[in-house]
Amino acid sequence: MLGWVADGAGAIDVNAPVEPISIPIGQMTPARATAQVQVGGNLSADSDVGTAVDTSITVYDSLGDPHTLQLAFTKTAANTWDVVASIDGTAVTVSPAQVTFGTDGTLTTSGPLAVSGFTPAGADPMAFDVVIDGSSGLVQYGGPSTAEATSQDGRASGVLRGFAISDDGTITGQFSNGETKVLGAVAIASFSNPAGLVRVGNSNYSASVNSGEALIGPPGTGPRGSLTAGALEMSNVDLAQEFTSLIVAQRGFQANARVISASDEILADLVNLKR
Question: d(Cα 37, Cα 151) in Å, to the nearest integer?
Fold first, then answer.
């Protein structure tokens, strides 16, 4: 299979020369330390002072080891909540350690909450932002509290377990840590005169003067055909017609065999008459 191999960032240059594509099953993808945690939902405006709302999420250090981040929001005034955090049960620093809301229920605290003060064994000190603003950030409306940590951007290391080829020829690797990464793309060649290709055996063909040079590009572009991901190509003949021809040939063979048998019997009778 020929095509283009993606660079480290997953970009593909379809103008580069094609080369054999090798899927490196077992390839490792490095771990990534958590740099950002997203927290959103509602801190109930109906809650009494002293009410606490807890949420937790798994975060990752520089080695890709998981740790549990626990966040607790405690209401201290009408529109004010204190914030404390711990990682694996160890208290860490949160700055600012308080969030406030306006009378319309939206945040008045600007910027993310910076979490620091935890160093895992053998790894770099952990420091990341807890994002609480934006369209999916915290609000304070009436009703139940639904605040929770919804996502984070760290990951453990992963091993390439499989791959998939899309309709446009893009090859995407699937890693054990849930990450996906573009590995390359399949190329397709077209010819101005496909009938002029030279058969070289084993269902392979070679370009010739009659066929013209190969015009190489991504599937589905220009005169090139497209791919159907996950499909198995069937026979390119009419199966009904082929079975009909097979039956006709079989009946013809049977008829010829009976003619030969009849001729043999007639000859045997002639020999017996002479005797």
Answer: 6
